[in-house]
Amino acid sequence: MALVPDEVIFDSQGQSFVSFSYQNFASIENYGFESYWLLKLIERKRFKYQSGLNLTWMHSEWTNLDADLVSWEGRDVGVSRQVGGNPYFQFNTLRTGEALGTVRALEFQRIDRNTGHWVFNQNPSGTNWQDAYRPTGRVIPRWWMGWNHGLSFGKWSMDAFFRGVFGHVLAHETNYRYGNINFFALNRVRSSQELVNLGLTDQNTFNSYFVENSSFLNLQYLSVSLSFDLTFGRTKINSKLSVIGNNLFYLTRFSGADPEPRLHGRPVWNVDDHVETFYAYYASGVADANTWLPARSLMVQLQLNF
Predict the structure, then answer these.
(1) Contact 136/171 with Cβ under 8 angstroms?
(2) H or E stretch including 195?
(3) Domain ranges of the chain
(4) Distance (Å, rounded) from C-alpha 268 to C-alpha 279?
(5) Quick check: 92 and 70 in contact, CB under 8 A?
(6) How many other CB atoms are there within 10 angstroms of residue 272's CB atom?
(7) Are 7 and 80 in contact (CB under 8 A)?
(8) For residues 3 and 171, is the Cβ–Cβ distance under 8 A?
(9) Is the pLDDT of residue 143 over 90?
């Protein structure tokens, strides 16, 4: 579940995140609970209201690892990572007792106003090596919630469904590539050589600044309906007119296009060729730069019962 630059797969951009294959012997321990409540809050002849709430909480962690799993992370010392060998190349991202989906990154502190360099919370040796990569969240949500409402008043009725997902983070790749996050108005679109010439290569290092809390509450479904009768001579037709909306809004602190958790890897989008590279995959938890806004729809429906 580590986030790593795709420099290790010889991508000239060197700014995406890919997962690396892990091989080890381990087991995963899961525990949690799920509950559902249905409340009939008002039940009168012409006015009824009921609400149902579903809550799910789950925790998964690694147990009985034979050894720490190792991945490639970082551009911080200017070399490609290799599994094994020099201990400086060891970036332990999965550990016994650690939650599945834990994300590690350099801890952002500030940007130096004089040089434009990024300042990280380094280890005692003043480097960005193994112990400088600290947990910054987890890509697997802690809570899932479904909350429905049913309301009727005379011939009017309303149904609504809220969906909530809480406790997960996303790496915001669009912000990382194009966010213009420095004091010199430089943009990620500008050539890497120009950045090197200006001494601003530190801004290429992925860090916790780009990992965002992505919890959200979504109004996934809303319908408002009116029941009435259509009369044609002696024929009476029971009818219902409805206005239905899907994904009407999200409440979230995530600044990207879609706060949905990314639980599975997907092919990396190659910016130059405008194709997906199927030999390289984003790690879980990456909101990649090729993310579209969630579809929103509004529909009018007429139901006729003969």
Answers:
(1) no
(2) helix 192-197
(3) 6-305
(4) 8
(5) yes
(6) 8
(7) yes
(8) yes
(9) yes
DSSP labels, 69-130: EEE---STTSS---SSSSGGG-EEEE-TTPBTTEEEEE-EEEE-TTT--EEE---TTSS-SG
pLDDT at 87: 37
Residue 239: beta bridge partners?
228, 304
**Rounded to whole angstroms, how far apart are CA atoms 240 and 285?**
43
What's the whole-model pTM score?
A: 0.73
Residue pointed to by tokens 């799993």: 69
What is the residue type of 295? A
Q: How many CB atoms lie within 10 A of CB 47?
A: 11
At 245-276, the pLDDT tens digits run 999 999 999 999 999 998 876 666 554 444 55
Convert the pLDDT of each residue in 41-89 to its tens digit. Answer: 888 888 999 999 999 998 888 776 654 444 333 333 323 333 333 333 3
Residue 233: other Cβ atoms inside 10 A: 5
Per mean pLDDT, which range of 213-217, 232-236, 240-244 is the poorest?
A: 232-236
